[in-house]
Structures
1.
Amino acid sequence: MPLKLELLSRIHDRQGFDCGSAYLNRYLRNTARQHSDKGISRTFVLVDDENPSKILGFFTLAFCEILVEKLPRKYAKKYPVRAPAAKFARLAVAKHMQKKGLGTHMMLNAMDRILRVAEHLGIIGFFVDAKDDKAATFYQQFGFIPLPDNPLELFLPLTTIRQAFKIR
């Protein structure tokens, strides 16, 4: 199955997607394209080349600003009071495709996109709000660090991403 990630567009069957989360399904169906059109975020969909309208998974990226006091002390001391970052806003895989590595595939693609953004915009890293402990554990395998005041809010320093991709 030749997979590819592309920007969500009208050709993609948003109504046919079901990841098991009503919130994420609703976001994809009703909000994702509007946010993209307005420049609020970008949603990328994972599709099979042979059936490019069927969405197998998706993730959303956005810009955010972080109060550095929320970061672990080791990082907070490096930055001004507020710092720019990227937000991994959503991640979902269709129910029938879960547990096949597609979430990891999309995460690595998102990290690569963030590195490319960092070539042109200043950002300190990547943030995600995990929906639960299981999701937090998933993100931690990529190097995300729980924030001291909320273990479901996690931070991945840009330096960690560069190391993972062996970029200086």
2.
Amino acid sequence: MTRAKVRTCLFLKREAEEAARFYVSLLPESAIETSYRPDPAGPPLVVEFTLGGAPYMALNGNPEVVASHATSISVLTEDQAETDRLWTALTESGGQEGPCGWLKDRFGIHWQIVPKALPDLMSAGDAAAAGRVQAALMGMHKIEIAGLERAFRGEERKSA
């Protein structure tokens, strides 16, 4: 295996290994690559892993570190089922939902879970439809593809 020259570093309080194991369980083409343990009996200082084919490292650091949504992991999902699965996994056990497909997981890392339908609809070449899609998106936490498609077509949301 070739080591990546560039990696995104996730600075965590104490749970680098736990977070890396959880993250690689979520997406195909993901794996733990290496762990560096200064004390063989202690937790790793650094865990290198790939997530959906992209290189990352998790670093155990200062317990006072606070992650910011200025940096997030963005996942382009295939369909509503994948969107729902990732959203549920990342928000359970202390994660927090945010607007427009954003969330913060239990480790404090920010994510964007975006169905590929969103950029497809936004770039379909119809400015009015794209505006309606954007307006619909602004009212969502987890992105619902059916709601985006209704907005694209200009349909009012039908109540039950």
3.
Amino acid sequence: MTRISRRLAILAGALSLSLAVLGQPPSASAGTLVINAGTSDPAPKQAFEELIERFKAENPDIEVKFNVFDHEGFKTSVRNFLSSQAPDVITWFAGNRMKAFVDRGLLEDVSDVWDANGLKDAMPSSLSAMTIDGKQYGVPWSYYQWGVYYRKDIFDGLGLSAPKTWDEFMAVNAKLKEGGVTPIAIGTKYLWTAGGWFDYLNMRINGLPFHLELTDGKVPYTDDRVRAVFAKWREMIDAGHFLENHATYSWQEAQPFVFQGKAAMYLIGNFFVPFFPPEIADKMAFFQFPVINPDVPMFEDAPIDTVHIPARAQNKEDARKFLAFVARADNQTAMNKVLERLPPNKDAAVKDDRFLKAGFEMLSASEGLAQFYDRDTDPEMAKIGMQGFQEFMVKPDRLDRILTRLEKSRQRIFKQ
């Protein structure tokens, strides 16, 4: 051994001894976990703070840095978070909102978290919304149902029951109208409520895979299958089943028609429930959007809130532990009790609320979930699309020019 070799060997031995005495540097799993969340509203903030305290109690070797941002400001800042100085975990949304970042390579594939924790069995209805090209890119922690909220007392007075098929639905609408009650309340002043009708008609007629292909820009809006959706929609418009002058009302401004008994039904999300006046709360009920094509599975709109690992995160090992922790049934039970919403994990417990329980049963049995039109498609396409939906509801004879306009926008936006 040369003099230089002996000196290197001595230095190597000394270094090994020093490491043995001082201890190894902390590993990635025992580092700092940075979480950026757009959960500034009181209930989400509380739910996450309590979740993190439970996580720290089970993982005392992990230091957690929790950064809370204003909900709207976070939507703008998240792109910067993902592109530079990425945190280890972010809150976000499923559907196209997630896909936009996956397509840019900004979110980590976490299929291993799903596989290791049996999440495909625990959260089957959320799987499609979290999957792109067969891989999962996040974990859902909360969602809520859409469906038809209705005045059961009005139904009972006219001898009606909640419809399960399209024919039954149309018959109920006709009976309500004969009784002097507007069948369906809706306010389309701010457009998005019309998107709910398009979503459900398309999913019930053509199914969720087709719906997602359309919202992803892969199907022409002039396709005959899309025209079939508007044909079914027009049956209701021509029969006068919707609230008159709905384009002048916001969704909140349309509520009193139901509360005052002037309208019987409202297709809306579960966020509608807290608005019920005490005197009519017990008179309200809920049913699933009816079957149109019995060969098409029952898919639902259920906007999902999610957590993800940025592709440029530094501490992905602990981030994976956190995502697995978020997915657990006990943690989803606790979080959604605070939120008064639904846990995606089917083994979680639901707050003792009849609307939440009905939604939980419906969504847990669903074959797949959409996120809502404006979350499932490009933001610019969503705006143009929902303008078209509202215009169609007011002027259905303009359908051809509306679809032509939507198709031109699709080709430009998606460059197809």
4.
Amino acid sequence: MANPGFTPGDAGGGGAALVVHHGKTTRKALQMQWDYPVFQKKTSRPGKVSDNATGASAVLDALPREQAFLYIAGEDPRPLLILRECEFCNGTDDALLSKTEGNENTLLMARWFHCVKLPTHVLKENHPFTRLFSEYPAKSMPHLFLVSRDGSKAIPLKGDQSQTELWKAMESVIAVDYKKKYEPSLKEVKKILVRYDTLDAEEALKEERMQLELEANGPKSKKLKKLQLELLRVEKERKKLKLREAKLMDLGLKREKVEKDIVLTNLAGKD
């Protein structure tokens, strides 16, 4: 999905992926929303967090895989996209985003997932979430994996996958968790992003003209009032597009609430 106008940047909340120059509205729509779960060990005294429940330096027991999954998933009903950071990609999204192509598809499809980042030390034997990875051999340890919210489908990825491989994996999980097909919505939302860029450019131009007009003829200028009305029109159209975008992105979750016994059964590999 190569696009013209690539420059080094950070549309995904980290990393050096190449991205298209977009306006502020599209950049916001394409921003990755990461969750950073930290396990807090319950204590016998209400209202007090255990001294062990800090994070990187905590000494805790590893949770059973099913419990780790449930803790990370929390109340978010979407399927999970879990990225394990390492010393080379810490603080970036390099294991997810491409450095040579546009990432619009990835960044938009990621909005159908609960995106979670786990720290570099998650593989240590006493980390609460380490058993999410315990079934994988060290030589093929996944950098990220996608998993259905009910645990029925888990797809590990090594971090060097092609965009096509990533999209295929995301599509497989989306098909499990959502009622509607994603392709028509993705196509229409990308058209909306183009319109956002046009509106943002138009808005910037009108604001510049307003400033010049204000300096030249003062706040009572008729031309200034006309430009203000044109800005209101731009904002009104942007709001309409945002409502349409939200509607398109709603694919309808098959399960808005997932019973714990279903998750536990699927992750344990039982019938």
